[in-house]
UniProtKB/TrEMBL annotation:
Keywords: Carbohydrate metabolism, Cellulose degradation, Glycosidase, Hydrolase, Polysaccharide degradation, Signal. Gene3D superfamilies: Glycosidases. SUPFAM superfamilies: (Trans)glycosidases. The lineage of its organism: Bacteria, Pseudomonadati, Pseudomonadota, Alphaproteobacteria, Sphingomonadales. Its EC number is 3.2.1.21. GO terms for molecular function: beta-glucosidase activity. This is Beta-glucosidase. Belongs to the glycosyl hydrolase 1 family.
């Protein structure tokens, strides 16, 4: 064990699972087709001033129609797996109640097409496109039950062919950023008590979803979630700073992954929230703590942390606007987070398996002479993968990696202004062109080693 020098062409475990990730609202388009119901992101993106340039996902990458072409992109990369999400409102246009068979039929075809091309689908059930018709959205506890019903229906239909399900994507984003900070749909700025209740409904939906999948899926189906846990890098690799990183990971995620892994809210969280603490009903924490087959994490940027004598025992070091970042101002560069994210989750909770459900970056990609030479993205990915590789070398149970993203897509509040793909999408023509990073990723997969 020990740090590998960046750029050392070490290899990954022989069965390491290479993949790419996308999400339904970001790529599908076809928002009014085959009975799909509206979502909170349709409403939000059609409200002037909410999304950069007032962009929306009406067409996006048109993947609803072009999924076969997308499968061929995956195949050409040589990935073994594809992480995609399902649009809940295609299956239940109103979130609950009447099922729309055309929605399930569509995903049936997508799954079959992937399998026919040797690509294993990993399915995320909720990646933020909440059906608009659900009263109160995540403010309403009933939404957690509606999610579980939907998850069970999907598991029943697809688990004969799909072995891996992730309940939700990124709890912090569809709760805090959406209901407390107002930057994502539905764009609310609720006070702490109501915000904490939204968080609680989010983790509850995950937990009830796990139970519903297990009750309906073929035995042996693997269930987990994809979370953008806040991760911390010890500024100096000594035991005191490493302990600070572990402690920060546990405390700072008390309302999300920590609650899920431990089946309880930390006392420190409940005390700090005081009267605004979430209202928890009997049985909730047991559901939330339902055992998982794997934990998947979305890893983009670090916070650096140091040990500190005063409570809580660590100090998070702030980023400065001029700290190095990729094209998105929030995407600070700190590739050691790749290792420390896996290490801290492993040290704290020992999940049976870990995946990287997203890692990637935005870059100011410009097509020149029909090519996109995105050296910045290759730099970012190679650095991160060097540190993920360290985790595999040290025997941590990291099983696979999903690059975000297969192609440029609707980047939420940033509209189409930020490109994360290894394929360039010309949104006027829908033409997909592999960037240099796609060529690089293909070579890495072919050798199963850093290149
Ligand atoms: C992930 O979010 C998402 O799962 C994925 O859908 C998305 O496309 C991808 O990463 C790239 O962003 O501008 O200050 O409001 C990563 C976490 C949360 C990071 C929202 C950007 C907005 C920061 N994202 N955040 S700000």
């Amino acid at each position: 064990s020990g740090a590998l020098p960046i750029g050392n062409a070490g290899s990954f475990p022989p069965d390491f699972l290479w993949g790419c990730a996308t999400a339904s609202y970001q790529i599908e388009g076809a928002v009014k087709e085959d009975g799909r119901g509206p979502t909170i992101w349709d409403t939000f993106s059609h409200t002037p001033g909410k999304v950069f340039n007032d962009d929306n996902g009406d067409v996006a990458c048109d993947s609803y129609h072009r999924y076969k072409e997308d499968t061929q992109l995956l195949k050409a990369l040589g990935v073994k797996t594809y992480r995609m999400s399902l649009a809940w409102s295609r299956i239940f246009p109103e979130g609950k109640g009447k099922l729309n068979p055309k929605g399930l039929d569509h995903y049936d075809r997508v799954v079959d097409d992937l399998l026919a091309n040797g690509i294993t689908p990993y399915i995320t059930l909720f990646h933020w496109d909440l059906p608009q018709a659900l009263p109160g959205g995540w403010q309403n506890r009933d939404t957690a039950y509606a999610f579980a019903d939907y998850a069970g229906v999907v598991a029943k239909r697809l688990s004969d062919r799909v072995n891996h399900f992730m309940t939700v994507n990124e709890l912090r984003c569809f709760t805090d950023i959406s209901y407390m900070e107002g930057r994502h749909a539905p764009g609310l700025k609720l006070p702490p008590a109501e915000g904490n209740q939204v968080r609680h409904h989010g983790v509850l939906a995950h937990g009830l979803g796990v139970q519903a999948i297990r009750a309906n899926a073929k035995p042996g189906t693997q269930v987990g979630l994809a979370d953008n846990t806040s991760f911390f890098v010890p500024v100096i690799e000594t035991e005191e700073h490493i302990e600070a990183a572990r402690k920060a990971t546990r405390e700072e995620n008390a309302m999300f992954l920590t609650a899920i892994m431990e089946g309880r809210y930390l006392d420190s969280y409940m005390q700090a929230q005081g009267a605004a603490a979430p209202k928890v009903q009997a049985g909730d924490m047991k559901a939330i703590g339902s055992p998982l087959d794997f934990v998947a994490i979305n890893v983009y940027c670090p916070s650096y942390v140091r040990a500190d004598a005063s409570a809580p025992g660590y100090k998070i070091l702030p980023h400065l606007p001029e700290s190095p970042h990729m094209a998105s101002p929030w995407l600070y560069v700190g590739p050691e987070v790749a290792y420390w994210s896996v290490r801290c989750v492993h040290d704290l909770w020992k999940p049976k398996a870990l995946y990287i459900s997203e890692n990637g970056c935005s870059a100011d990609d410009v097509m020149t002479d029909g090519r996109v030479d995105d050296a910045d993205r290759i730099m970012y990915l190679r650095n991160c993968l060097g540190h993920f590789q360290r985790a595999t070398r040290e025997g941590l149970p990291l099983k696979g990696y999903f690059l975000w993203s297969l192609m440029d897509n609707f980047e939420w509040a940033d509209g189409y202004s930020k490109r994360f793909g290894v394929h360039y999408v010309d949104f006027a023509t829908q033409k997909r062109t592999p960037k240099l990073s796609a060529e690089w990723y293909r070579e890495l997969i072919r050798r199963n080693a850093l290149v």
